[in-house]
Amino acid sequence: MEIDGTRAGLYVGFGALTGISFTAVRHGFNPKALALGAATGILAGAAQAGVEQLSGSGGKGMAASTAVGALVGAALLGRVSTTGAAASYGKATVIGAAAGLLGPIAAGMVLAQVQPA
Questions:
Q1: Structure pTM?
Q2: 16-26, pLDDT tens digit by residue?
Q3: Using an 8 Å Cβ cutoff, are 96 and 44 in contact?
Q4: Which of 89, 46, 90 minimizes the C-alpha distance to 64?
Q5: How many CB atoms are closer than 10 A to CB 48?
Q6: pLDDT tens sequence across 23-42
Q7: DSSP state of 115
């Protein structure tokens, strides 16, 4: 399946937005945390676009996006919190997985309205 620039851009953009949104809920308006949340979402959205391009399967792209979001969220956001380490990494993993899952879903909803069938 050929991924055009609009689709890839929406995957990355909505990944960033959901990453920032969920990070803001957890960490408030901490600029470092918001930047790391955006980076998490961007990498998750890029994984969605890349895997979907290579495999031709939106489902595989969604799985990759969720997994990458969870891993990157734990790696980047897990160190921001001042709570216990296990809780901090667990919440960061959930934030990343949510950004990786919900970002492409939101992008798909927008694409369904914009692009003809």
A1: 0.90
A2: 999 999 999 98
A3: yes
A4: 46
A5: 34
A6: 999 888 999 999 999 999 99
A7: S
